[in-house]
Amino acid sequence: MKKNSIYYPSLILFALAVASCKTQAPSTTSSSKIEQSQGVYQYRDEDPTVKPFFSDRQGVIGRNGMVASAHPEASQVGLAILQAGGNAVDAAVAIQFALAVVYPGAGNIGGGGFMVYRDNAGKAYTLDYREKAPGKASQNMYLDSLGNVRQGLSISGHLASGVPGSVDGMAEAHKRFGKLPWSQVIQPAVDLAEKGFALTERDALGLNRIKPDLNTINPGKTYFLKSTVPTDTVTWHKGDVFVQADLAKTLQRIQGQGRAGFYEGETARLIAEEMQRGKGLITEEDLKNYHSAWRDPIQAKYKNYNVITMPPTSSGGVALVQLMRFTEPYPLRKWGWNRDSTVQVMIEAERRVYADRAKFLGDPDFVKVPVDKLMSPDYLSTRWTDFSFAKASDSKTVKGGMIPGYESLETTHFSIVDKEGSAVSITTTLNGGYGSRVVIGGAGFFMNNEMDDFSVKPGVPNMFGLIGNQANAIAPNKRMLSSMTPTILEKDGKLFMVVGTPGGSTIITSVYQTILNVIEHGMTMQQAVNALKFHHQWLPDKTTFENGAFSDATVQALQSRGYILEKLTNTLGRMDCVLIRPDGSYEGASDPRADNTARGY
Ligand code: DON
Known about the structure:
By secondary structure, the protein is α+β, with helices and mostly antiparallel strands. It is 32% helix and 17% strand.
């Protein structure tokens, strides 16, 4: 099988190009580095305005298995499956279905996702179970007669949904790699839906927040409302036991009939009826025709690491490799974590990578995506010739690159390593929180609003501010472009790291920083997750950062070179990762920014 791999020695050419076209990096004002002392990583903080970590949460250590996911109940399910003799794929399937129950904002059976899997012999696979546009979808379906975008239609309500892929994806993954019976791995999700579970504070707040949409889009029909009387002020609270009887029945159909329990029969009929009720497009035929796709993983060398990541339909893998290659020649570790020079080369890489994303990336079953070319050092060096440490580049003049012959927020991630060393990295989503907010009547789950990830009109930003072009235009049965970046790294040929996060357009840059935090700055997995993050996506031309991510000196240095910086009031990323430590034990790291939990044994 052909791999999308990079010829490593040509990196030297790129390094030479970097050296010849760069002015000297301005010296950083003071030194702030992560240093390792007797196996413990210390942040040496000479600048009191740097606050590198969101929290001082410690990683979870295990020797036999590790899971990290967005919800404590789902992580517990994954751990129990591993302890019952299940492998990483069994645990992944169990977690995907458990999240559909306990984390309805992003966990799903009405959405889609990507899986990167590396077996314990080192063979890598990726599964694309991304949603598809319905058969009746068309390029201009969200435009009015004057060609203007009809606001909101790709984001909320029945027309916003693509044909879900999650159930088919899990059935495929389990058929090929699962060890425990299908029925056994679905059972924990059935139990959670049937018997209920205690809401966390965050769960309760999330459901209360969408009450107006639930009332408007699903009048009287859903248990996601504590009271179905619209004027009622009753709200969910931490500790309330949340039971989902319709979802339990849907899960039982999937448990008994596999993919047919969702894509045919009762569930398919309920989905199609719901779509007809709300003038959506998905039909029983669309559901029956949906199939996920095994794709060749992107595999790319970075120093003594091998990056195994998701090819298109995600843009994430290509973009991650481009980012890592752009900055590989620079001494980031010597400059220090989030010092001005370090940040500057990363921002400039991000600017160019997101411009390429908008121009070239789309569903590979519909458009030719020049994956190898985009990641090649020769191409990347042509993209870097206008870089200068003296001054910020201008996104108005940075366009997608030239390739000869080429015409031209809620999601959730979980990472698993089992006893044998097989690893799964899955990012799965409904797109926005609770997707389209449409609940399938009688089946009890939210549908995605993934159609907004298409470019509904060239140059018009989607809900993440991303723009796109013909490569990502809507077409019947086409998959919409994604930024999800589930990734596995090998070091010296051995399993090293499992990584990923939600965050829309910021997924790629959060994964990039988390990886660099470990392999360049020497952080533990948990420190890398805790570390504050920043983001640039070409357009809009600004760098957003979590409060505390940059010292005052870094802010001043970047501003003096023309960078527009914006301090965020919210956070970036909700990483769930696993690192293999030098002694072979696993460090599970879950993001302290939300309910994320790592469990190991
Ligand atoms: O596939 C994508 O890139 C988006 N649908 C992901 C959405 C997301 O991460 C929202 N979460 N915060």
